[in-house]
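Per your request, structure below.
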């Protein structure tokens, strides 16, 4: 007998077919994600993600909280990339308020965001190795990430839920010793990237498990609205920092890493290259960092003029957007979050169809989702 699940109509399966649950209590689902998978032998015929186990009513709660109160709440969405959450939201509020963020604050936002991109990708590539049974790359990634988190703690006071950005700027300036500490951590990062390449990416077993597995056609990716490294691994060089430059990104020279096969291997390779590019951006930003204020002046009681706006940033997982509607009060009338993890995850049924069950975990891990922003 199949357990009855609300909203799921169970039809008798033909001989040789099996319906199984992957998750929601499974470490390789990267959170409380359930996927109903129909199998014929070990071949996946269909897959249906079931979401909602982590739903926390973020968008509804935001309608009752004041604009400044929402900033730390956004940290809990993509909890691996808190700075990007704060940035997307603050840009939306600043746009309606027509606030000009001080130049130094914009540089500080870029620096912390790119460091956050690196820490996020370290988790992404580390856990991907773990999904395939490789423990050592995961522990190496965490070791390097801890050094980056020391930097975040030094600047923001927190290691993960940073609450560093403010509407109009940032919380506080960088300490004097910060540039030197960053360079020391970048040395460790360079060593990790070389070791990861040798230990895992060049490993024959890893190549068999990832090459030509979970191939995402670029046209399918665009049709689904996929973004970030997940899309760029399929050969589409879409990056908001370049295609729709915001903040001071147009002042830096950097490449947008892409690949051509769109498989699990290429998605990992693109994330590794992005870490190198992020390090380059941070170095340039620290070198160009201007003097000045770190926060624009805002009223003590913040009332946002009536109107609506959509703003987005290029997070570690793609286009993270905020659609904000104000009725002129101290709280949003409506806030809608555009989650790249949610959109990218929607391609899973396409990616796993026809694949072997053993490849399911590799494909899911290569998408690099965070369930906190999938369910919100």
């Amino acid at each position: 007998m199949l357990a009855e699940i609300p909203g799921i109509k169970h039809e008798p399966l033909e001989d040789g077919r099996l319906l199984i649950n992957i998750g929601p209590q499974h470490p390789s689902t990267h959170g409380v994600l359930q996927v109903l998978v129909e199998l014929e032998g070990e071949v996946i015929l269909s897959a249906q993600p079931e979401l909602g186990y982590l739903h926390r009513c973020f968008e509804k709660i935001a309608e009752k909280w004041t604009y400044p109160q929402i900033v730390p709440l956004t940290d809990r969405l993509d909890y691996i990339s808190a700075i990007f959450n704060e940035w997307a939201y603050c840009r939306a509020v600043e746009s309606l308020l027509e606030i000009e963020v001080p130049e130094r604050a914009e540089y500080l936002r870029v620096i912390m965001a790119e460091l956050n991109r690196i820490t996020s990708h370290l988790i992404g590539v580390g856990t991907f190795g773990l999904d395939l049974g490789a423990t050592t790359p995961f522990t190496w990634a965490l070791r390097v990430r801890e050094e980056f988190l020391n930097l975040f703690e030094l600047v923001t006071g927190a290691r993960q839920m940073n609450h560093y950005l403010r509407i109009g700027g940032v919380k506080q300036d960088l300490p004097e010793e910060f540039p030197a500490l960053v360079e020391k951590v970048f040395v460790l990062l360079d060593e990790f990237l070389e070791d990861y390449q040798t230990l895992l990416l060049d490993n024959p077993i890893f190549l068999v498990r990832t090459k030509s597995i979970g191939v995402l056609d670029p046209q399918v990716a665009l049709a689904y609205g996929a973004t970030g490294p997940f899309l760029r691994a399929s050969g589409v060089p879409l990056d908001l920092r370049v295609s729709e430059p915001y903040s001071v990104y147009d002042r830096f020279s950097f490449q947008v890493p892409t690949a051509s096969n769109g498989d699990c291997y290429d998605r990992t390779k693109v994330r590794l290259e992005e870490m190198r590019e992020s390090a380059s951006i941070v170095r340039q930003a620290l070198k160009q960092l201007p003097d000045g204020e770190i926060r624009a002046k805002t009223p003590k009681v913040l009332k946002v003029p009536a109107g609506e706006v959509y703003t987005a940033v290029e997070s570690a997982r793609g286009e993270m957007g905020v659609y904000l509607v104000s009725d002129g009060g101290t709280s949003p009338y409506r806030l809608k979050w555009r989650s790249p993890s949610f959109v990218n995850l929607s391609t899973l049924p396409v990616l796993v169809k026809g694949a072997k069950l053993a490849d399911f975990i590799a494909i899911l891990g290569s998408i690099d989702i965070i369930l906190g922003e999938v369910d919100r």
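The longest helix spans residues 103-131.

Regards,
D.
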